[in-house]
Amino acid sequence: MSTLNLRKIQEEREHQILSRYAAFSDASRGRDRDEPACDIRPAYQRDRDRILHCKAFRRLMHKTQVFLHPEGDHYRTRLTHTLEVSQNARTIARALKLNEDLAEAIALGHDLGHTPFGHAGERALNEISKTDFCHSDQSVRVVEILEKHGEGLNLTWEVRDGIRNHRTSGRPATLEGKIVRLSDKIAYINADIDDAIRGQIIKEDDIPNSLRDILGTSTRNRLDRIIHDIVINSLDKDDIMMSKPFEEAIADLRKFMFKSVYTNKEAKGEEAKAEKMVKSLYEYYVEDINRLPSEYVYMIREMHENPHKVVCDYIAGMTDRYAVSVYKNLVIPFSWNVY
After folding, report:
1. How far apart are CA 195 and CA 191, in angstroms?
2. What total of structural domains would you count in the chain?
3. Domain residues for 238?
4. What is the three-class DSSP state of 53?
5. DSSP code of 31?
6. Per mean pLDDT, which range of 54-63, 96-105, 253-262, 309-318 is the poorest?
7. CATH code at position 112
8. How far apart are CA 172 and CA 180, in angstroms?
9. What is the pLDDT of residues 149-202, one digit of tens each?
């Protein structure tokens, strides 16, 4: 059997096994640049592999999810959050007989453009750059332009659409993209509760009983109930949805988290410092673009990219600790670093 048939066999199997509402690999709208198909892997599996092996994905392990530099080894990072989103999405996609490879690729790529210091870094760049900086759009920019020295990863249209539309306000074109959109929300809310309890910011009993009665009384219980609700309400439908009670309860739980954790001075008190650091870095590089690494200067001079956007590219790509190191070198005299 030739290796060429291995991909075709998998594509044919999708049509035999998956729901009629699935995004089939052989029906993709394609890539921006034509290239020979892989002789073993269908298109979305190939995209998943490209994301997994890219530099931006590896950097996620050193980027903040919610808590800045927490004490302890068990708090989420942007990478562990991404893996949790991927697992939720794969579970739901498999249960609904949708394309698990596509859901996984979108999930693994959805936060590639996230800044250091979580949403504090995103707010800072959006405020100071005047470029409408948004991490979902930046994630698409990573896979289309920034990876591989300006070549990008050349992903399929469906994966890029899911990445761009993974936020609550997004409108993904595929059911797999809609799965990731919901999986992201349920992953970060439940993980943030778990991390906030670990950090003694809240206790499980602080969550209103009206929400616990619907959603569950532990992180594991909530994830199980929410995923079951999504699957039950989406079976054999051309949409991904939750029941009204669950949808309302999750919205109320998110409000509780904003009040108790996301705006809590004890949990988030250091964010102002992080925002100031990001803004200072932006001003430093905008003042003289030649301070940027050569590949970013090339983007401005030879590819005619907006300098403000390129400075955002560079800073958004930093890990927390690299941003701190760069900032430290800029503001502290070298001879003082021994103290």
Report:
1. 6
2. 1
3. 4-338
4. coil
5. B
6. 253-262
7. 1.10.3210.10
8. 9
9. 889 999 999 999 999 999 988 899 999 999 999 999 999 999 999 988 988 899
